[in-house]
Request: fold
Amino acid sequence: MAAAPSLLHRVTASRKTLLIAFAISLGTLLLAAVWFTTARSALGDAFAEVGAAEQALASAQQRLQEAELRVRLAENAAALVTRANAEGLVESRWGERLINVSQGQLERADVNNLLASVARDDSRIFGAESFELSVTRPDEGLFDANDPRSPPLQMTLRGTLLFRTEEAP
Reply:
């Protein structure tokens, strides 16, 4: 009967070994699952950070392009100011007058005089915001010769007339 307790002892000892091995394997599997879940969450966070960084990079590149454009515009403006000063277009030597004729009926001779007064030359520059010239009757032509019996023209003219107040050096 001595062999029987030894066999029982081996089966019992073997069962304990198997249970310990199973517990260790189960614990390792649980630790691996926790690690995998944590790593997967960290991977998602890393992808989110990469997306945010790419978006920040695109925004920074856009701001850089805008800044470079502003620099070019400032350089062009400085060159224009230098050129204007060289040609005598100094602000202190020019006056400004706003012209506003709104749907006014004028005789053809008056229209011609007004248009001649805003024509560009060395002493004046006109910047029109709006200009409209039309006849008042459908049977009349806009470019008909001056006839004293011609009806007046309908005119709208709005803009800024700059004129020299001093001669250029």
The chain is about 55% helix and 20% strand. The beta strands are 94-106, 124-135, 153-164. The chain has a mean pLDDT of 84. The first helix runs from residue 3 to 86.
